[in-house]
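Lab notebook, bench 4. The sequencing result for the construct came back, and we need a structural model before the next group meeting so we can plan mutations. Quick request posted to the team channel:

Model the 3D structure of this chain.
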Amino acid sequence: MKERKNIDGPDDGDGDELVDKLYVAGCFGISIGMVDQLRRDKKLRAIKIGRKVRFERTELKRYLKSEQEGGDGAGAAVVKNGGNGTKPAGGRGGRRQRSGAR
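Done. Here's the predicted structure in token form:
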């Protein structure tokens, strides 16, 4: 079983330390793809620095608190989409259907 990281890392001074997607995935026990999905769904706010995406530790705590108040918890975010990494019908990706006959 994977060991989860602690959100309150060793240098939790003012809580504004920036962390990457790998760190977030380790804290929540989810995949990096699921972290991206939470960001796309605007459930987890991120900061872009050039092409890099970073998260404030205070944002991670805010997300966990909001999920717990909703009764779902952090791990439930994986289950909401089936937990298998597939995208819902009509979502991004996949082939587009052509209009008209050829």
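The domain at 18-79 is CATH 1.10.1660 (Multidrug-efflux Transporter Regulator; Chain: A; Domain 2).
Will bring this to the meeting.
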